[in-house]
Amino acid sequence: MLFASKLNKFRTVALVLIFAGMGIMYLGFLWPQAMMFFFILGLLGVGSSVAIYFWVGVLSTQAVQVECPQCGRITKILGRMDQCMFCKANLTLDPDYATGQAAKKEQ
């Protein structure tokens, strides 16, 4: 479920940046002449992941909460289309993209 919704995709990228930044910092111990370079590069990776986590938090507070028709859980939607965080069902708020029974009833 790591890549289920847009919010989770951003969070996964930030988590990868944290581990990559720590790994880059660790490389400085293997090559002592460039230790400060690797430390600064790793610090930039960790700092950028903190910025992404902050940005995702702001996006998460502004996202629309809907109930998933498949699993019945409350999930958040970013943009026109998104996936359920739990069951990966495609969700939309735009009737032009909607499929299924709800769209057929409106027509």
Structure description:
The chain has helices at 6-30, 35-62, 101-106, and strands spanning 64-67, 74-77, 81-83, 90-92. The protein is α+β, with helices and mostly antiparallel strands and 107 residues long. It folds into two domains: 1-62; 65-107, no CATH class. The chain has a two-stranded antiparallel ribbon with strand order 1-2. A two-stranded antiparallel ribbon has the order 3-4. α1 packs antiparallel against α2.
For the sheet with most strands, the description reads: 2 strands, antiparallel
N- to C-terminal separation? 34 Å
Mean pLDDT: 85
User: What is the number of independent domains?
Assistant: 2
InterPro entries: UPF0295 (IPR020912)
Transmembrane segments: 12-31, 37-56
Organism: Melghirimyces thermohalophilus
Keywords: Cell membrane, Membrane, Transmembrane, Transmembrane helix
Overview in brief:
The chain is built from three helices and four strands, in the order H-H-E-E-E-E-H. The protein is of the alpha+beta class and 107 residues long. The protein has a two-stranded antiparallel ribbon with strand order 1-2.
Features:
alpha+beta; two-stranded antiparallel ribbon; 3 helices; 4 strands; elongated; membrane
